[in-house]
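In the lab's daily routine, each protein ends up as an entry in a very long ledger. A line of letters takes care of the sequence, but it says nothing directly about the fold. The three-dimensional part falls to structure tokens, numbers that each stand for a local backbone shape. The outcome of that step, for a single protein, is printed below.
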Amino acid sequence: MPTDISGAKVAFLLTNGVEQPELTQPWQAVKDAGGEPVLISLESGKITAMKGDWDHADSFDVDATVADAKPDDYAALVLPGGTLNADTMRGEKDVQAFVTAFFTADKPVAAICHAPWILIDAGVASGRTMTSYTSVAIDLKNAGATWKDEEVVVDGNLITSRNPGDLPAFNEALLTKVASR
């Protein structure tokens, strides 16, 4: 039987340059499980995804800005990757505060590919075991994390994966964590 997360609102925090499948596949998994995905970004309007780091993909409507969103309204947080997306988001103080609030409340946080950069800048990577895109591994190690080359690593309520090829395992771990709350 599929995982049921009916009624759970899941925040997807991202901006332009997000890796499209890392947004759309977890988004669909949340919807298919009865949850309500919400796209949160730096500004209102639309964001444009990427296929890889070079090709523009589809645009998506922003549901709320990170400045206006309240972490208490969400059961979990998804941080899709994409080099441009993660690099832009990591230095934003509102993003850091939003992410930190999920860790403080011990809510599930799922980060894939380059998104663990955001966790480093939010100050929540130290002491954690996680994975990421291979080029982020040294940054995580330097931030005090233990890095593993596995398709999905679950450390408490933190779920991390390496790349779009890991999305089935990433989505399953996310839904399992949300359903168990």
